[in-house]
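Inverse folding, one chain.
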């Protein structure tokens, strides 16, 4: 390796900053355009005018030379014929959305769409190795443990996740009570606030569905979906029973898993070398397509979430690292920085899992048996950042709706519901949105108010995903230290 070559985390940081600078520049200087169409129009339309400005698009539909109606795409506004996203417009005005996709869009939006496609190629490569990496690393890690150690490690891992999730939720509730972002009058309720889920399954149904997922009816189907909870449960069970069979059978399975794990890790390392490029395109997409205007009306809410996430990631978890795991938070964060930066850019903890596994074992010096057990479980059920975000969001919505804070009893309901939902909803698509509907229903708030915060959800999703990955990584250090203490005591007793 050349001595002048930058370390991976610096490469990723440079890629992220470069994408952000170019994207913001495009959004500021190349986000306006105007188009008028008079041919190839559906549904009897005679003309269409499309005007793009920073973060906002207006589509005028004409019939016989007279303006029939105007539909607007604006994440920061609400009202009749105003939609927060192009997808929301597609549901209600499919023809207008089709015309906009074909003929509208400024240079910033066009570049952003292309960057998204290229960035998603990097995510697909990470997703490609995620399932085989989970299977081979879990089999290798579990079969390297004794029978008692499996149950002990699972109990400690689950305990760590519950404790840190409650600490995260408590931090969020404290911050939203101090800042009170919904009581400043910056956002006015009323009108159409966006397309959100009208109903959500009950919390008990979601939790039971996750219990069912622990017993996959078709393990091969679980691999194809992929359903990570089913994959993890079946793989652990397979490894445990391989150990019970013992003899040459167990030895062959263990050796095959280690061989396959080595090959998959080599593939993962090659893909990780492309992380700076992938992160560049993902950040370019986000910054080129998100205008600064969407943050003005929700600024105090964004500040409350950011401060709460920052406190949990920068104070709570480092204290746990220092006094429980006996590790330097600064050094551990530096070792995990490639995974954290990728999680922030991609907003996908499952997609970042291969990189997180690599950083934990190769950069942070944590054993494969700990990392391969704790991280896949954490990516499925541990959502510190998301649980914190949901608690802040629901109290913010309650402040807007009622004009005052929820009483303590209701805030406790929010905290407990957020904790249970963060475990139960982690493995389902769009978990954050489903979780929020569940919590809103638990305190009798209108679920349609969720649409108010969709404008800034993408940016905050990046932050809470990075916190999720950071918490999982810290969990590896904690479990590794606790297991090492048990091993030392066992050796002392035997000697």
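Residues assigned per position:
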């Amino acid at each position: 390796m050349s001595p002048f070559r930058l370390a991976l985390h610096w490469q990723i940081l440079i890629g992220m900053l470069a994408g952000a600078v170019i994207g913001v520049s495009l959004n500021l200087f190349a986000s306006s355009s105007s188009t008028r169409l008079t041919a190839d129009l559906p549904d009897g339309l005679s003309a269409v005018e499309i005007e793009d400005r920073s973060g906002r698009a207006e589509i005028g539909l004409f019939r016989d030379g007279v303006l029939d109606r105007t539909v607007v795409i604006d994440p920061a506004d609400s009202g009749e014929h105003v939609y927060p996203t192009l997808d929301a417009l597609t549901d209600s005005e499919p023809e207008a959305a089709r015309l906009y996709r074909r003929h509208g869009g400024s240079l910033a939006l066009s570049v952003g769409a292309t960057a998204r496609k290229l960035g998603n190629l990097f995510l697909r490569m990470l997703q490609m190795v995620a399932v085989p990496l989970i299977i081979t690393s879990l089999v290798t890690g579990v079969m390297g443990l004794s029978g008692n150690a499996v149950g002990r490690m699972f109990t400690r891992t689950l305990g760590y996740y519950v404790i840190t999730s409650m600490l995260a939720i408590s931090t969020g509730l404290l911050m939203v009570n101090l800042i009170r972002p919904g009581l400043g009058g910056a956002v006015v309720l009323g009108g159409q606030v966006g397309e959100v889920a009208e109903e959500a399954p009950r919390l008990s149904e979601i939790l039971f569905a996750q219990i069912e997922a622990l017993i996959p009816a078709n393990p091969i189907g679980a691999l194809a979906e992929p359903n990570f909870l089913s994959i993890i449960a079946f793989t652990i069970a397979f490894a445990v029973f391989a150990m019970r069979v013992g003899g040459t059978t167990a030895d062959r399975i263990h050796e095959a898993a280690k061989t396959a794990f080595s090959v998959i890790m080599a593939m993962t390392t090659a893909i990780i070398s492309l992380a700076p490029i992938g992160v560049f395109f993902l950040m370019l997409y986000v910054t080129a397509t998100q205008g600064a205007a969407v943050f003005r009306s929700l600024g105090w809410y964004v500040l409350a979430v950011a401060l709460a996430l920052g406190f949990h990631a920068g104070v709570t978890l480092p204290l746990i690292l220092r006094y429980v795991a006996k590790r330097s938070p600064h050094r551990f964060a530096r070792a995990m920085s490639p995974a954290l930066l990728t999680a922030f850019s991609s907003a996908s903890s499952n997609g970042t899992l291969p990189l997180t596994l690599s950083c934990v074992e190769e950069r942070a010096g944590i054993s494969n048996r700990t990392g391969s057990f704790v991280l896949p479980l954490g990516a499925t059920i541990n959502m510190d950042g998301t649980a914190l975000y949901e608690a802040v969001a629901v109290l913010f919505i309650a402040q807007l709706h009622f004009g005052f804070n929820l009483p303590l009893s209701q805030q406790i309901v929010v905290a407990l519901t957020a904790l249970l939902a963060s475990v139960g909803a982690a493995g389902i698509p769009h978990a954050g949105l489903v979780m929020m509907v569940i919590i809103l229903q638990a305190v009798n708030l209108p679920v349609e108010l969720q649409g108010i915060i969709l404008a800034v959800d993408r940016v905050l999703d990046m932050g809470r995903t990075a916190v999720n990955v950071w918490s999982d990584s810290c969990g590896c250090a904690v479990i590794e230290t606790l297991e090492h203490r048990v091993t030392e005591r066992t050796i002392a007793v035997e000697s």
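Confidence is low (pLDDT under 50) at residues 185-198, 425-430. Residues 119-275+292-494 form a domain with the Proton glutamate symport protein fold (CATH 1.10.3860.10).
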